[in-house]
Every structure is written in C-alpha cells, then in structure tokens.
Recover the amino acids of this structure.
C-alpha cells in the first residue's frame, strides 16, 4: 500500500514537473518573440476560465478529449497502440448523425440511447476490423488503424458530398436535424434552474463523458473482462496459461475503443453542430493519444489531461486573438511542448524526483 | 603462503531501512574456488554487486590482492582484475563471439585493428584455458552453455584474475554444468580465483575449496568444503534443521485420471517435439518425468495443460477425451479438474505487475464465487487471497503487494497456493522448486505429497533428478521427445536413469 502511495506521489510530481517545464519553454519562446510571457499566461488562463463563455468552450473541448483519451487507454491496457480514434470517431459520428436524421421525430429519450448504440456499433466495427487483423493475422495495429483513418475520411467525403448533401447546397454536409433530437445545451440546462449563462457549444454530453469515465474505471479494474484485457496487455503468455483468449480480448478491446471514440460524434453532431459535417473530428482522435498518455491511462488522469488540453485549445485560441505576435501556430507549439515533455520525455526527471521523494519520506 | 585475493571487512549496505548486508567480512584465497551460498534474499548478490561496483557499501573496506581498493564502478572492478559472469548474460545476440568480446574495448581508429588484436588474444585464451568456442559464430546460434563460455572469455580478455559467477548453473543442463565445472577447475589450476554464488548445495560440495554461508544479510559461517557436509550447510543457510530426504508413505494408486495415447506435437517451426508419447497417471500417485531440459518435457506439459494444440493422438482426463480436432484450451482443462503449476512462474504463472490478489485468481477469474453480476467481488477475493497466503505460508502475507516484489520462493508458493487450493483431480507440476530456496523447497515438496495422499493424480516434470527421485512413485524418462523407459521409484538407480536421459535404451537382455 505504502509503495503504491509513493508511486502515485512520484507520478504526480513527474507529470507536474514536465508540464511546468513545457510551459516554461513556451514562455521563453513568447519572450523571444518580444511579448510578455506573464501576460500570455494570464490571457490563456483568463480565456479558458475567466468568464463563463470561455469556460464553456474549455469544457466542450474537454468532453471530446475524454472520449478519445479513454478510447486510447482501453487499447493501451490491452497492449495496443490505437491510433485510429480519429477514424473511429468519424464513422461512429456518422452513425449518430444517421440516427438523428432518420428518427428526428422521435423523443430525445429514445433517440439518445439509439444514437449511443449506433455509435458503439459503427465505431466498434471500425475498431474491430484492425483488431481482427491484429488478432488473427498479426498485422500491426498502428499501421492498420492509420490506414482506417484514411479509409474513413474518404468514405465520409463521398457520403457527405454524394448522399447526404441536400440538393442545391454547396458545402459537403448533411441538413440540420430537427430540434427535437438536439442534446440540450448547457445554457438551456442551467435555464431550467433559473440560472443564466452564455450560450456555448457545451452541452449535456459533458455529463455523459463523466459517466463514461467512471464506467471505464470500473470496467478496467473491477470486472472480469477488464481483468482479462489487462492480463493480455501485460503478459499474454500468462493469459494463454490462464485460458484467456488473446485474440478475443484484442478484438473486444478494439470494439470498446471504437465505441468510446464514436461518442465524439454525440458531442459534436448531436450536441453542437446538429448536422454531419466534414472533418468534425479533426485532430481530436490524435489528441486523445496525448491525453491518455499524460493521464497515465487512468480515467482520473485522463479527466485532468483532457481538461488541460481543453484549456490549451480554448485559452490558446484566445491568446492568438489577443496577442499580436502569437498566432495559431504558436498555440500548436505549446501543445507540442506539452506532449513532448509530458508524453515522450516523460521520465526525464524521474530519477531525481524518485530520489527526492525517498529522501522526503524514508519508507 | 597463499595470498588473499579479496578481503572484505565489515561491509554494511542498507536499502532504505532494509539491511541487505550487515557487518559482512569475507576472505577469498588466491587460486581457489570459493563458494558463497545462501537462500534467495540472503544478500549474496548485493555483496557481489558491491564488489563489482554496481552498489557502494555504506561502510566497510575492500582489499584486492592485499591492496586496499576503492571500487566505485564496474570500470574500477575490471581495472582491479575482477570479472563477473552474470546470471543473465550481457551479450549482443546478433553479434559474433569476437564482436561481443571486442565490444567496449575497441581502441584506435580502425575497428579492424582491434578485431585482429582481439582475435589473436582470444585464440591464446581459448588454448590456455580449454575454452573452445568458434569465435565467428553468432551468439544466438550458440547453446546456452557456450554463451556462458563467451562471458567467461570476455572477463578473461579484460584481464580478470578474479572471476565472480552469479548462479551460473541456473540456465544449464546437467551436462553443461559439468562442463562448466571442468572449466572452473582449469581456471583454478592456472592460478585464477573463482567466486561461485549459488544456492545449490550439490555444486558447493562438488567444486569449491572453501565456502561461506550467508543468511539474512549476515555472514554466518566460513568452512573448508572438505570439512563440512550438505546437512550442516543446509542448516546454516536456513537456520534450523532441514530434512533432506522427503518422508512419504507408499502410494496407493487408484483408477487412471490422465491417459495420454500416441501423442504427437509439432511446434510452430515444424520441429516434432513430442513423439508418440503414451502413459497413464493414476489417482493417488506421483508420476515423475525426468530428462535433460529441452527434450520435449516442456512441450508435453504445454500440450497436456491445453496451452498448445497437438497434431496426433489423444488425451483423456476425468472421462473427457481431447483429440487434435476436439480441442480444449487451458480454461476447459481447468474445468475438467486440472491444475497446473507452470515451469516458468514469472512469464507464465504470474502477471508480475499485478498484485497478489489479482494473481491468486488468474485462470479462475470467471468462478462465480469471485464475481457479482457485473463486477468482481474484490473484498471476497482479497479475503480468500489472504487466507490462502496464510495457509501456504507466503511471506509477506499482503494481498495488495505486487507479485514482482515477492522473492522467488514466495512467488512460487503463491502459484502453488492458487493451484492446490482448487482441489483439482489432476495436478501438473513443472519445475516446482526452480530458483526456490531450501526452506520453500521442503514446504512445496510436502504439499505435493499431501496432494497425492489426498488421492490426486500428480504429474511432475523436473530437470532436478534428486527431486524426481525423492518425490515420484513412478519415473518416466524423456529423451528427444520420446519416452525412453519407465522405472518404479523404489528400484530406481541413478545410473540407469542417467543412461536413459542420455538416450541409451536398456537392451532387453
């Protein structure tokens, strides 16, 4: 138990240190561009938290990253490096949109579970196919899931421009759904309680994301299916010994990955744009990888990391708007530095921090 | 008259609050083979790591060749003439022998020059010490015994006069071990000093001149090997009297539990590993499979336990028939009443990064008693894990501790606890005491006998002939995938088994 607590402390300190270094270097770059780093930081934080509209956008982005972060984490626990959340979200989102178009006269209470189910099925299929190739043929999932991202992208362009695009419309997107199947936006929900907040794309899906965090946490660590997935991911020799089917679990994990990634469609399509749009998932799937790795593939960590990236997205947008020398690309740079230090160079300072913790608390 | 090659004085080493070495002193005479023996976790490896510069002692002094020496790194140790052969070899698998020896000592501008120099030197060393090995062979094509020889050559090439070998026979077949001992004798005759770390009494008795015994971080005794015996050393190691002989009542075999008929297994590379094997295991008896490691025993076990599918023949277990078309995986075999203690507990028997309570359900995680409708019943699992750990004397009995943090013996007891507690009809046990300390060996052996006496059928596979001889009621000897012969344990003769293990069939009159 004690060992676990020390480990948690070390991991937390390592992550925080890495983030501070990433921000410090970002600050140096901003300073070199002739701007005040303190002002930039203040602007970023104000943009993300300072007023209810900013906060709304931050949490709206966070919702997306929770889904794709979880999608990566499940695969990771099964020893898979799922780069395909992007495509899985895209195809899952298509399912959400089709249900909304098809059943738009129905009550939201019926459409929502059906949309969730369709997103799981379609996103799941999009994950299951690379999973099947991995399990039965040994094709590496990094290669196949990337390929499936491209395939998804081509399919969506075709469907949107040739099938779903209403006649006379120019842009490759579907028509808007009837209002009855829109997920209530946060300002509407607050309105029910008589509280007034600014309208943002933040919607009820945020709560669904929080529920998913809890469900995934219980699934991975408290069910026999999660136990099997973790066994396969950590030691497949022991899995075979225990009579756990490696291939079945790889496919199962990829289906769950795909399903979770597909929920991005619920937030984006059912909750915000209310139509199927081109590239609605752009970048969210890839960011999910960073979110999960920085969050140590644990739902609590993923929540915090998703929030961090929500802040960077929203605060960064504000920053590039407010400060002249900082444009969109610098925001990407900051995000890149965070991924570099908290993800790739994760253990750079670990030995020192471990030493420090041991000094601090001998046993 | 003889000089002292190594003298350690009052070495202390703490890891946090844990004392790994306490006031350890050791004198190793030049030109001798000096054994250091102790149970796992007694501090042997820590002591040698201090001598080789991996760790720094908290206090104490080291003298090499009667000169006080400070050893801060492996580099210092090599400079002082100390070489080490690790338990797990430090070789680049895809390099040749020559390249591996050169690695790290290359000088000058052209690699070719160093290579040629090393080649000449290596040929001289091979001749001087009878350490023949093809210097142009690629490491991964060499058997383990020869790889170890390369490690010794590496140390000698670096000018080692004192050679430390850490559990060198753990990975060797008995023949390879014998060969190693001949090499060590040769080295001693040429004036080198050898320190042999082991927990096997037989090796100490066979080859060393002097022996030092460690227990719980302390040096408890120094003996001349000629003036001591196994029993005394075992007692010193464990700290109490140890029964070297297993007491057991005669077997009362019942009906057949496992029947194997004409079993053939061809592995993924197309090699026929198990050839037309047939035998029976009855309730209430222990059938031992002896053989030099790598003669198909491991594969036979994997096939019987449902890990690998087989091509020909059939297996009957508690009335169920399994063939190459009617297959059963490990989970199905468990349902048929089989329990399996695998040969390789770290890779197969445990998920070492999981906690003890997660390991205690491995393979049984679907049992209704462990599961509620959706989630597992963690409280119940932890409780029953605690109970099993107490029952099987797993120390520390903390169900939350990660499996990798237990000692080898306690990891094995954890696996044994899991498999024995299920009340299986058939028990398949592979190398139950490999890398396990003496105290735990005794315990595990008694548990196996207890299972037999409770009427279970036991199939025991081991490369330790002593273990087979002392536990089994019937002995099958495997060689090259075939069963060479069957011997009743009561009239077993070590020489006869040895011949069968070497593939020499007893001519029928």
């Amino acid at each position: 138990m004690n060992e676990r607590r020390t480990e948690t402390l070390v991991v937390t300190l390592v992550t925080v240190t890495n983030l501070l270094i990433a921000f410090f270097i970002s600050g140096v770059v901003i300073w070199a561009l002739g701007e005040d780093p303190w002002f930039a930081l203040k602007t970023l934080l104000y943009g993300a938290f300072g007023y209810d509209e900013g906060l709304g956008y931050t949490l709206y982005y966070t919702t997306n990253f929770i889904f794709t972060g979880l999608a990566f984490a499940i695969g990771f626990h099964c020893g898979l490096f799922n780069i395909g959340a992007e495509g899985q979200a895209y195809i899952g989102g298509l399912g959400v949109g089709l249900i909304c178009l098809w059943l738009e006269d129905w009550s939201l209470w019926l459409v929502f579970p059906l949309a969730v189910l369709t997103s799981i099925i379609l996103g799941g299929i999009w994950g299951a196919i690379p999973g099947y190739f991995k399990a039965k043929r040994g094709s590496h999932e990094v290669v196949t899931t990337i390929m499936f991202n491209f395939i998804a992208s081509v399919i969506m362009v075709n469907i949107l421009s040739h099938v779903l695009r209403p006649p006379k419309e120019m842009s490759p997107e579907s028509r808007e759904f009837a209002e009855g199947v829109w997920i209530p936006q946060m300002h509407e929900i607050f309105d029910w309680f008589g509280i007034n907040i600014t309208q943002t794309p933040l919607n009820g899906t945020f709560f669904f994301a929080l529920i998913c965090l809890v469900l995934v946490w219980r699934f991975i660590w408290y069910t026999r299916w999660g136990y099997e997935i973790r066994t396969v991911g950590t030691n497949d020799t022991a899995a075979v010994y225990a009579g756990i089917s490696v291939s079945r679990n790889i496919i199962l994990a990829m289906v769950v990955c795909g399903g979770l990634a597909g929920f991005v469609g619920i937030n984006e399509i059912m909750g915000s744009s209310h139509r199927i749009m081109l590239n609605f998932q752009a970048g969210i799937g890839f960011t999910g990888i960073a979110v999960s790795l920085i969050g140590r593939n644990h739902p609590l960590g993923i929540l915090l990391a998703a929030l961090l990236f929500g802040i960077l997205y929203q605060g960064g947008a504000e920053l590039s708007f407010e400060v002249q020398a900082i444009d969109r690309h610098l925001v990407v740079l900051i995000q890149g530095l965070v991924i570099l230090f908290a993800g790739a160079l994760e253990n750079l300072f670990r030995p020192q921090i471990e030493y420090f913790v041991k000094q601090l608390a001998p046993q | 008259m003889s000089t002292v090659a190594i003298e350690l004085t009052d070495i202390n080493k703490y890891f946090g609050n844990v004392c790994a070495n306490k006031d350890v002193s050791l004198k190793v005479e030049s030109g001798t083979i000096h054994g250091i023996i102790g149970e796992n976790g007694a501090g042997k490896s820590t002591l040698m790591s201090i001598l080789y510069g991996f760790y720094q002692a908290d206090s104490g002094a080291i003298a090499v060749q009667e000169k006080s020496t400070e050893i801060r790194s492996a580099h210092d140790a090599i400079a002082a003439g100390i070489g080490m052969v690790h338990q797990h070899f430090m070789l680049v698998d895809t390099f040749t022998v020559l390249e591996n020896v050169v690695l790290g000592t290359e000088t000058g501008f052209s690699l070719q020059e160093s290579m040629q120099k090393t080649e000449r030197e290596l040929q001289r060393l091979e001749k001087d010490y009878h350490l023949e090995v093809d210097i142009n062979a690629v490491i991964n094509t060499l058997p383990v015994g020869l790889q170890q020889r390369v490690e010794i050559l590496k140390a000698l090439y670096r000018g080692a006069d004192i050679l430390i070998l850490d559990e060198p026979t753990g990975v060797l077949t008995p023949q390879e071990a014998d060969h190693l001992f001949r090499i060590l004798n040769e080295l001693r005759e040429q004036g080198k000093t050898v320190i042999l770390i082991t927990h096997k009494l037989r090796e100490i008795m066979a080859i060393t001149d002097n022996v030092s015994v460690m227990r719980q971080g302390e040096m408890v005794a120094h003996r001349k090997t000629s003036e001591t015996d196994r029993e005394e050393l075992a007692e010193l190691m464990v700290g109490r009297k140890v029964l070297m002989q297993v007491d057991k009542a005669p077997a009362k075999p019942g009906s057949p539990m496992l029947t194997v008929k004409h079993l053939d297994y061809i592995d993924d590379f197309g090699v026929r590993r198990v050839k037309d094997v047939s035998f029976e295991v009855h309730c209430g008896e222990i059938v031992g499979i002896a053989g030099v490691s790598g003669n198909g025993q491991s594969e036979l076990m994997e096939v019987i336990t449902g890990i690998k599918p087989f091509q020909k023949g059939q297996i009957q277990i508690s009335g169920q028939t399994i063939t190459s078309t009617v297959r059963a995986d490990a989970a199905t075999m468990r349902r048929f009443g089989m329990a399996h203690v695998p040969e390789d507990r770290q890779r197969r028997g445990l998920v070492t990064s999981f906690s003890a309570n997660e390991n205690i359900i491995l393979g049984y995680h679907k049992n209704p008693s462990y599961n509620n409708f959706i989630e597992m019943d963690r409280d119940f699992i932890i409780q029953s894990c605690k109970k099993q750990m107490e029952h099987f004397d797993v120390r520390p009995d903390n169900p939350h501790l990660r499996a990798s943090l237990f000692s080898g013996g306690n990891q094995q007891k954890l696996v044994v606890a899991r498999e024995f507690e299920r009340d299986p009809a058939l028990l398949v046990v592979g190398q139950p005491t490999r890398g396990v300390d003496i105290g735990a060996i005794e315990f595990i052996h008694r548990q196996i006998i207890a299972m037999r006496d409770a009427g279970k059928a036991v199939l025991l596979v081991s490369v330790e002939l002593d273990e087979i001889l002392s536990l089994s009621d019937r002995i099958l000897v495997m060689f090259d995938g075939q069963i060479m012969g069957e011997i009743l344990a009561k009239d077993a003769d070590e020489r006869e088994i040895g011949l069968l293990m070497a593939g020499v069939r007893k001519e029928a009159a």
In short: Residues 2-32 of chain A form the longest helix (31 residues). Chain A has a mean pLDDT of 90. Chain A is about 75% helix and 0% strand.
